[in-house]
Amino acid sequence: MDRPVTPRTLRLNAADNVIVAVDALEPGTSVEGVTATQRVPRGHKLAVAPVAQGEPIIKFGQIIGFASKPIAPGEWVHEHNVEMHDFARDYRFAEAAREEEILPLEQRATFQGFRRANGKVGTRNYIGILTSVNCSATVARFMAEEIRRSGILEDYPNVDGVIPLVHGGGCALDVKGEGYEVLKRTQWGYATNPNMAAVVMVGLGCEGFQIARWKEMYGIEESDTFRSFTIQEVGGTKKTVEAGAAAIRDMLPIANRARRETVPASELVLALQCGGSDGYSGITANPALGAAADLLVRHGGTAILSETPEIYGAEHLLTRRAATREIGEKLVELIKWWEDYTARNKMEMNNNPSPGNKAGGLTTILEKSLGAAAKGGTTTMTGVYRYAEPVTAKGFVFMDTPGYDPVSATGQVAGGANILAFTTGRGSAYGCKPTPSIKLATNTEMYQRMIDDMDINCGDVLDGVSIEEKGREIFEKLLRVASGERSKSELLGYGDAEFVPWQIGATM
């Protein structure tokens, strides 16, 4: 007769007063010398020590919340008995900073990329249609549809496609304000992302975000790889669509001349994302992606961690890794800005996790943040950037963005990311053009259920695969996708609708 299988649990740090239920725990189940008194769903937490009301809940060796009532060993620990309140963090600026060992050029991994005239390297070769304002979004889509319907793309196999990247703003905003600056940087970042071979910019004409002003700010000249049109000046919808489509037809042979060549992995700029997180995110996929990010840094590349509201409560782990005190203080300034921003908008930092996150086992933003920060690996933080600022530093960096995935990723791509890795536990359906995205599942059950969307299963970490081994698997996948292998989201056609610039400030 087979013996009953003991459900699996994980203690993540010796100091923890909770453990994670890898498998669901039924009342009466004994694990780690504690008997469960309530059902604990998979991915959720079980108390293994008494916690008095007001005392901290410890996971990852860090505070993830405070007991809202006395918690006895064996109880399910979740939002019914955990609350959030502020507590002091010791930032220890630059305490753990170190000089990273970067492999010499001849020892670095390589991929097949598109070397651009400015020296940057693309992983894809798109023609983009950008819009200054939502009022020109339909015309941009009509231009792309005209090219698609014509079948002309079949004649240019080296071009990955023509993509309309439209948004919901561009007018009724303070043209001297923060929102304008963010949109300005975002559009410039996409226009110059190395995954773009050529760009058409289309506006209405009377909007707040003026193309002519934008071009003047960045010294942009009309060329065979950049054209701009305004509907009012060209003479309406039909004429603008015709003019834009004609410009794209002229660009196609130029873009098609691009050829992949062998380049070092140091040319990769990796956007780190997570969405639809669960209780396994901080245990499997996120630390595995962190290991891949460490590998990339060792090979001379760049990894961008973002989602400022989702490192809240874990920022002290990053400030310790800051290369300098100044870099660490820039991160803390962002945290303070977000505290003020949420207060002004009658919100709170703990509005996260989402209902789906909570169903997956996450209880507070502190718990989510500690897991999310693991995507950034362990190397020294060499820079902190505002949303959509060009990322110029090598190594591990941070960019200020909201936690909302499409908005966050848009900022990273605008900053220069030419490849993206996205961890998910609940099963986020996401893609990103012009930057290819690979999806990393935190658990095997979801990976198998959403196999058409997921690129890599990190759930096998719970079965004994090491974080280091999984990190190498992710790193190798990044190199293959950067070389042209299609990710699952690309095969499904995702990425056109996921361009979502951050809208800050009032709509007037």
TrEMBL record:
EC number(s) given by UniProt: 4.2.1.7
Residues annotated as transmembrane: none
Domain SAF: 16-83
Keywords of the record: Hydrolase, Lyase
Keyword Hydrolase applies: yes
Annotated GO MF terms: altronate dehydratase activity; hydrolase activity
Entry coiled-coil feature ranges: none
Major enzyme class: lyase
Matching SMART domains: SAF
GO BP annotations, alphabetical order: D-galacturonate catabolic process
Pfam families per the UniProt record, alphabetical: GD_AH_C, GD_AH_second, SAF
Domain of life, per lineage: Bacteria
Family designation: Belongs to the UxaA family.
Protein name: Altronate hydrolase
Organism ancestry: Bacteria, Pseudomonadati, Pseudomonadota, Alphaproteobacteria, Hyphomicrobiales
